């Protein structure tokens, strides 16, 4: 039975979401599938279809049923790493060996491990780790193991082994296991009490569905040992919806907005031959660019389970979805987001007056970079040059007297300096050495290279 905990969605919307869920379970032959929609940081709809054991008379799932979330586990490990960075315990450019010495891949950086650009092998050298119990760190990557497949930084190459390494890094720097750190620093403060390393309470069994017959095969469940940071956690619709709200910006003070934004910036694209670039990886989060809209999140799979978490980064709407099947779930999360956006688009944030710094007012208006004209506006405490995302359009934050810093676009992290004349009036803008003047090539404003003495003609 579907639920709308807050009464926030229209009945027609909840019926459409339920129909999509029922279709997914039926057409893809999934024993059970469960999903939830997050809006405004709250779970506003949850539903499930099928039964946990795949039989007609079996137990139904609900928002408090645990499923294994697979690689979504990696996002918790990544946030734990970024919290260490923000606390000054490490730098993203640090080589792995500076914190965990003795491995064969110690020269790769923390950032490369987070973004799957380290070149590390994707799986272990031992038996299929997703189906067999794991050993300790030395069993995973001893110093003699040849684990580097390609030059670090060359390309995107998904590496489960790399997140086993990051889990070890978190453990070494905290003096506690990666799981203890994640539970103490993330799960408990966020109230995610039904997220755990092994199933507890009502939990879906992991099942494989025969490709040519209506038959089921139970999949093994185990402790992955040193590989656990790559895919060990179990969670529920209710709990993982809180993590979707975290990704949408409600971090509960556990991570700064700037760090979350940094994690969502594409570091390396998933370059598939003959296909356009639509997917990339940030620092722990997967990011997608679909028809001009940006999504963040992560997928997950382990034998017997599939999971998805996706958030529309513009609207903040999010979806979590689970199935207890080894394969078969389609783009359910994206489809549910699209259904929500089509039927009930997120309301735009209201405009309010205010928030303009007095220092910005004397800078608004037309400016010229050579003959090219741009407009500077003061909005929300920032300076806005042109249209952000178009050409050299960028936003700037004040960092000192007559000093601003680019936030995005061509001038991201570049300095903008307001230059004044002898009277204290604004003369021109020095933007990363480029001269912006009120008039095109104003010869009274010390344009580098000079201005032809005869002027415009």
From TrEMBL:
Q: Give every Beta-lactamase-related domain span.
A: 21-335
Q: Which residues form the DUF7586 domain?
A: 358-438
Entries under SUPFAM superfamilies matching the protein: beta-lactamase/transpeptidase-like
Pfam families membership: Beta-lactamase (PF00144), DUF7586 (PF24491)
The name under which this protein is listed is: CubicO group peptidase (Beta-lactamase class C family)
**InterPro entries, from UniProt?**
AmpC-like (IPR050491), Beta-lactam-related (IPR001466), Beta-lactam/transpept-like (IPR012338), DUF7586 (IPR056008)
Higher taxonomy: Bacteria, Bacillati, Actinomycetota, Actinomycetes, Micrococcales
């Amino acid at each position: 039975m579907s639920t709308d905990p807050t009464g926030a969605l229209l009945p027609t919307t909840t019926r459409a979401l339920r129909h999509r869920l029922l279709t997914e379970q039926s057409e893809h032959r999934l024993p059970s599938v469960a999903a939830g929609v997050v809006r405004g940081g709250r779970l506003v709809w949850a539903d499930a279809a099928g039964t946990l054991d795949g039989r007609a008379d079996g137990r139904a799932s609900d928002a408090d049923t645990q499923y294994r979330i697979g690689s979504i586990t990696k996002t918790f490990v990544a946030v734990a790493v970024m919290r260490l960075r923000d606390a000054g315990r490490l730098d993203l450019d640090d080589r792995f060996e500076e914190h965990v010495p003795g491995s064969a891949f110690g020269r790769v950086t923390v950032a490369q491990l987070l973004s799957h650009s380290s070149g590390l092998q994707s799986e272990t050298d031992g038996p299929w780790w997703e189906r067999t119990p794991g050993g300790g760190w030395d069993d995973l990557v001893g110093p003699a193991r040849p684990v580097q497949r390609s030059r670090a930084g060359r390309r995107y190459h998904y590496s489960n082994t790399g997140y086993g390494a990051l889990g070890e890094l978190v453990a070494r720097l905290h003096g506690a296991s990666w799981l203890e750190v994640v539970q103490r620093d993330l799960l408990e403060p966020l109230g995610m009490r039904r997220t755990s390393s092994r199933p507890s309470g009502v939990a879906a069994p992991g099942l494989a569905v025969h490709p040519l017959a209506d038959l089921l095969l139970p999949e093994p469940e185990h402790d992955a040992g040193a590989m656990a940071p790559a895919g060990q956690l179990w969670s529920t619709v209710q709990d993982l919806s809180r993590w979707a709200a975290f990704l949408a910006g409600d971090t509960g003070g556990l991570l700064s907005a700037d760090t979350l934004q940094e994690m969502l910036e594409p570091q390396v694209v998933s370059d598939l031959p003959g296909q356009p670039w639509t997917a990339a990886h940030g620092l722990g989060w997967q990011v997608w660019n679909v028809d001009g809209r940006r999504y963040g999140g992560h997928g997950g799979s382990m034998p017997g389970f599939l999971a998805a978490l996706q958030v529309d980064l513009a609207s903040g709407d999010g979806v979590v979805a689970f199935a207890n099947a080894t394969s078969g779930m389609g783009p359910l999360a994206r489809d549910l987001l699209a259904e929500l956006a089509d039927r009930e688009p997120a309301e735009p944030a209201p405009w309010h007056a205010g928030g303009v710094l007095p220092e910005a007012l004397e800078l608004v208006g037309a400016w010229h970079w050579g003959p090219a004209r741009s407009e500077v506006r003061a909005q929300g405490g920032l300076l806005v040059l042109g249209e952000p995302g178009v050409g050299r359009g960028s936003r700037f934050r004040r960092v000192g007297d007559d000093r601003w810093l680019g936030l995005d676009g061509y001038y991201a992290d570049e300095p903008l300096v307001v230059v004044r004349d002898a009277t204290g009036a604004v003369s021109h803008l020095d933007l990363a050495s480029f001269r912006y003047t009120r008039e095109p090539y104003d010869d009274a404003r010390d344009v580098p290279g000079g201005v032809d003495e005869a002027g415009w003609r």
